[in-house]
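Minutes, project check-in

Agenda point 3 was the complex the collaborators sent over. CS summarized: two entities, 568 residues total, and the question is how they sit relative to each other. Sequences were read into the notes so everyone works from the same version.
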Amino acid sequence: MLKDGWFYERSFNETFSMGWKVKKVLHSEQSKFQKIDVVETDAVGKLLLLDGKTMVSDLDEFVYHEVMAHIPFMVSRDCKKVLIIGGGDGGVVREFAKHESIQQIDLVEIDERVIEVSREFFPDCTSALDDKRVNILPQDGFAFIKSKNNEYDIIIIDSTDPEDFASGLFTNEFYTDVYNALTEEGIMMNQTENPFLDQYDIKSIYKNMQKAFPIVQSFTAPMSIYPGVFWTFGFSSKKYRATDLLSDKKNEMYKLERSLKWYNMDWHKAAFAISNFHKRKIGL
Amino acid sequence: MLKDGWFYERSFNETFSMGWKVKKVLHSEQSKFQKIDVVETDAVGKLLLLDGKTMVSDLDEFVYHEVMAHIPFMVSRDCKKVLIIGGGDGGVVREFAKHESIQQIDLVEIDERVIEVSREFFPDCTSALDDKRVNILPQDGFAFIKSKNNEYDIIIIDSTDPEDFASGLFTNEFYTDVYNALTEEGIMMNQTENPFLDQYDIKSIYKNMQKAFPIVQSFTAPMSIYPGVFWTFGFSSKKYRATDLLSDKKNEMYKLERSLKWYNMDWHKAAFAISNFHKRKIGL
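CS then shared the predicted structure for the full assembly.
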């Protein structure tokens, strides 16, 4: 996996590479689903790899996890029940658990070993997994969602790239199942890849979302360890737009956001005013 | 320079790397100031390197050049005269030249060879260098600025990293000279590096700007070819804030922004609502 003490991830059809100098390989295993490695780097601290792709680092895990949780929380009118598909590192659970009004957080992660390895090497991320509101369900999210109807206020798709067993999580069939599993004012959030090094056809992903949801919006937040860094995220909603922050929750959030590392409400409202490039790439 | 047909740029004290597969080396020379290379890549098209650092690519040159020019233009009340220090690729000149009300654009580039090489390999960038309002001045910007007083409405610092002959362009002395060279409502724009892989101490750069200017703000735009991609930019102003867009110019900009690849006024207004991370890193 290492070359002269460096880990490299090649992407965009093997034409672009990002690499990190590795101090030490902390863990390596082949689970039932994928290869799981944890390396200690100089630049980004501990780094989790699944099948040789960067997933989570100490340096910037807060960006992804905070935006995925606090944006839909602030828009959802009465958020009691949350579902996270993927996200075995626990980071998104941790952020939702900061809101006392949430009663239930279901985490559906296909690979239990990702959770166990994260508990060992990323204890900050997994710190809320033993919260009594959290249910860990080691199942296939694609199958799980089909059995649910009008149940969750927010559903987060915290997936890997549209390849192998995660490819189903980018289809219209799946987004329609998510729509049905949501309550009538429900919100879906998902990661939607890098539009500069557009190897997965982002426009078709957004088309699939638009077929299922009446409101589809997009924003960007940097993921320093992902290929090309400039990362887009989708906000798909049955009723409220992403900038319709619920005023009842603002006092709670003013207190919380001081302790957050990325999210604040001004940034949230601004994040959906996107560049011409971003609009054209996703076709919105 | 190449390794197995790839160009790699290592940064952040040699702990992080970005690489591009190279189809062909189009040009290599040692100028009086630096090594200048142009390579043809699969991922980002033609790529200009100065001393082995990525400067401009076909894929994303529009991002940097549009934000540097159109943001200050929309805030400046009566912008007649613009100075660009560095920027020998001509991209920022091209964007300012789209505004007919600008009467003079001075380009102070220390290395004439950068301009000549850009004319040959990046003709889109250099397309406005022969506009009759443009003066190309092959001089040291640090010395040039000292001779100017109350002369320019906008000054753009389009520099390389704070190393070698560019390091002076990040000092309080230089920012004070820029302040004096500006008219009384003048605006300075500069690139201020990546706060995740913060090898140049961004906070000290912003402190230097704040000592010279009463208003200092920051925003981010992605530069896919720069180390870590997540790039910050500074907006330093004598009178107006970055979100005070001049209403007289809005009709002109509504027409222009349809043809721009990145900039639009909604994005401009939103870009200055920055994340907690960004605020803390720059100390604003």
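Noted in discussion: The two ends of chain A are 39 Å apart (CA to CA).
Follow-up: revisit at the next meeting once the mutant set is ready.
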